[in-house]
Amino acid sequence: MTCTYREKIKDYLEEKLSELEMDAMEKHLDNCQFCQEELDRFLDNGLDLKGKALDVEDEILVSKIRARIKGGRRITLYGILGFLIGLFARFYTQDDFLLTKAIMALPYKLAEFALNIFFGDNVLPFGYNMFYYYQGGMGFFPYHPILDFLATSVTPAIIASFMAVIIGYLLSDKRVFRRKKIVKFFGAWLIVFLIWTGVLYGTYGYALGKVSKLEGIKAMTVYAAEKNNTSWLIRIDEEALNNEKYRELIKIISEAEKGEKSFYPREKEGYELLVDFAGGGTIPIYLDKHSGTMIVSTGDTYQLSPENLEYITEVLGGEGND
After folding, report:
1. Where do runs of H (alpha helix) occur along 14-97?
2. Which of 22, 41, 77, 165 is most open to solvent, judged by the fewest CB atoms within 10 Å of its CB?
3. CA 118, CA 141: separation in Å to the nearest integer?
4. Euclidean distance between the first and final Cα of the chain, in Å?
5. Alpha carbon of 96 to those of 83, 104, 112, 267: distances in Å?
6. 156: how many CB neighbours lie within 10 A of its CB?
7. Which residues contact 50 (CB under 8 A, 6 or more apart)?
8. One digit per residue, pLDDT tens: the chain, 322 residues?
9. Domain boundaries in the chain?
10. Using CA of residue 81, residue 87, residue 88, residue 89, what is the dihedral sign?
């Protein structure tokens, strides 16, 4: 299909058309994909602007091409600066200067709003004891501190870069960057954002799946719990797992029999285990030293046999007496 306006695009760029023709061409370009592609072909061509002087009639076209190149660089720079600002947006509460505080707060709050749509149900109740938790996060991934840090940092950065690029487009010459490019950019950005959201969802779901199966425990910190108080007993890390008794302890916990859902108790008498899983994920597990019931913070429960409970009590009790 050939468009009659297509032959006038070069004259349009060189501003040789009458005022009425210029207005008609601008309206036409907003609706004609073929002419938009032809316009981009002119502006994106490989003219050697450092070569010999061009004819006078081409000077306006050359200026448009230069504006296109300069505008593209400016938009890219805006996007990079926006991303960097977004990375540090979580610190907006510490900024005393109102303008920069507002600039950082906007992408952070938009990110918080967007993530709340997808992950709002993950947020723990107010006042929940999260001594193990990444402080300063949005709280949408409470059992995966690393993921919560990334979500709190990267999501505002993605949003801030989008806002900055849109500003760059809006400040550009309309005849150099058609406004429909904003729509295309928005579509591409939306895909990136949804992919990022999918990564967060998949990673957290995978981590919770391992937690639910008590699979892949790589380390744990053990606290003695009595009513509302806890006291540190031992950190069982990869080095400590060279000891047979700790390997056996981890194995016993991993192979506990799953039971019904329950509530994580506020008053405890036994042990509180802060368990780290391979691939990410950190979650507290309460072990009742009398019944052998283990309650995960998610509400999952597991039951230890009397023999296994006795073994764990001996190992951890010995640590408490050291």
Report:
1. 19-29, 33-43, 59-87
2. 41
3. 11
4. 87
5. 21, 12, 21, 41
6. 31
7. none
8. 567 777 777 777 767 778 788 778 777 877 787 777 777 776 666 444 444 444 445 565 666 666 666 777 888 899 999 999 999 998 888 878 888 889 999 999 999 999 999 999 988 776 555 444 555 678 899 888 889 999 999 999 999 999 999 888 888 766 666 666 777 888 999 999 999 999 999 999 998 888 888 999 999 999 998 877 888 999 999 899 999 999 999 999 999 999 888 888 877 889 999 999 987 788 889 999 889 999 998 889 999 999 999 999 999 875 544 4
9. 76-212, 215-321
10. positive
Q: Where are the beta strands (DSSP E) in 197-322?
A: 217-227, 229-236, 257-258, 268-277, 282-288, 293-296, 301-303
Residue 249 tokens, joined: 């302890």
Token look-up 């949408």 returns: 140
CA distances from 35 to 2, 7, 12, 46, 105 (A): 9, 9, 11, 19, 41
pTM for the full predicted model: 0.74
Residues near 250 by beta carbon (within 8 Å), at least 6 away in sequence: 217, 220, 236, 241
Please say whether the dihedral angle defined by the alpha carbons of residues 151, 152, 154 and 155, taken in this order, is positive or negative.
positive
Q: Give the dihedral of Cα atoms 56, 62, 67, 70; nearest 10 deg.
A: -130
Looking at the DSSP assignment, which residues form a beta bridge with residue 288? 270
Q: Which of 139, 117, 299 is nearest to 208 (CA)?
A: 299
The 8-class DSSP code of residue 278 comes to T
C-alpha dist (Å) from residue 24 to 5, 27, 31: 10, 5, 11
